[in-house]
Amino acid sequence: MIEVKNLTKNYGDRKAISNLNFKIEKGDVVGFLGPNGAGKSTTMKIITGFMAPSSGEAKVCGFDVFENPIEVKKRIGYLPETPPLYVDMKVEDYLRFVAQLKQVEPSKVQMLVDRALVKTQLLDVRHRLIQNLSKGFKQRVGIAQALVSEPEVLVLDEPTVGLDPKQVAEIRDLIKELRGEHTIILSTHILPEVQATCNKVIIIHQGLIVAEDSIEGLEKLNKGTLSLTIKTKKKSSLEESLKSVSGVLAVEKISDIHFKIKLQEQDELIEKIASEVIRSGAGLMELVPTRANLEDVFLKLTYGQDGL
Description:
By secondary structure, the protein is of the alpha/beta class.
């Protein structure tokens, strides 16, 4: 469906991305994950034909992005980080205009516009000016324009940036509903977004791919470790005594009554730590174990931190 080979983009002396190689199969929902400045948006712009690479190639549905740009663009719906909206147009008129730009058959334009309005829950605002809509609705219009040609591939670059929590939840639900109908690339640095919507993750850091796997596969990179959150009733200096427990790998003191501990994944260790807290007289109020998750792996791969 999407194939990238040795993709490189230079800005003067700086490499934005370097020799990227990956494949995305039909029906996948892929989280393209990385910190700000990692090269996510550059990669998305090249795949969608908005920017030329310095070297390498990108293919969509078998068509080279730069040898057959029209064929590629027919098959891609793209939502850039800033939605490409004509704010002085009404929602439905704008979507009809986009469908015509994408060379949708005239007999199908209205049907596909109506379908995009339904999918993005924009029916109630179809006759309103885009400039009068909230940011969340504008983002929906941006997704609707990506959908209006019924593309095989959807590329969404930071689709929830700047939205409030309710709007974020609504956009995530929409992406979930689109699974199975489209191959989706979701470029983001927001981890919960990836865990909520994606079946595969590509992590990019400083222009290089540092991991590519399912979420479950990536989480196994930290297999064998466990994180523990402890809260005590009284202020204490537990940090040093907890570090002395065999099997404890690291202790982070969040406050005098709140600690995060990284330890080897051994059930008896939890009991030892609980006993140590009780022995100290600090009063054990809370003990919550959590196994390694995507955030731990992300921090390890992109910031060199093991995470707690």
